[in-house]
Write a structure and sequence with these properties.
By secondary structure, this protein is α/β, with parallel strands linked by helices. It has one domain: Maf protein. The protein contains 6 helices and 7 strands, in the order βαβαββαββαβαα. A hairpin with a 2-residue loop joins strand 3 and strand 4.
Amino acid sequence: MLILASASPRRLELLKQAGIVPDRIVAAAIDETPLKHEIPSVYAQRIAAAKAEKVAAEHPDAIVLAADTVVALGRRILPKTETVDEARECLTMLSGRRHKVLTAVSITSPHGKKDKLVTSVVSFKRLSVVEIEAYLATKEWQGKAGGYAIQGQAATLIPFISGSYTNIVGLPLHETVYMLRSLKYGQP
């Protein structure tokens, strides 16, 4: 049995794109507050592992897939934006700059545990106030790390990416599928 330890509709859609349909979805309710001076890579790995461990403790015979995606500007972790002001602040900071999108994937199973951190680089064009306000009006930023969704209208603002596109959306498919196969998912 495969359990997706995430309520993210994007992660579910990405898995379906790869031909993988989880048997259950069990969102792990954990404290996602960054620790003082915690760098983005360590934070993402800690949160993904905590989600996997929490759900695996309740379902020890299952394969549990958890992930956490972070938008990082230098050592700064940008929030999952909940208000238009947060989103505006993130977009203003990202304007004309490159940043990293890090997704930590953590999978536990009766056959072992696998963890992987995938990093992609994204560059925003220099954004005008009009472009920022137009993007904010789409409401695509709601609940998104860094205040944008690359799979939506934000794609028109991004001239450059390096690395995994699906990582930027929220789950690096190539690495995730490889990890699942190495843990005997889908094999007799």
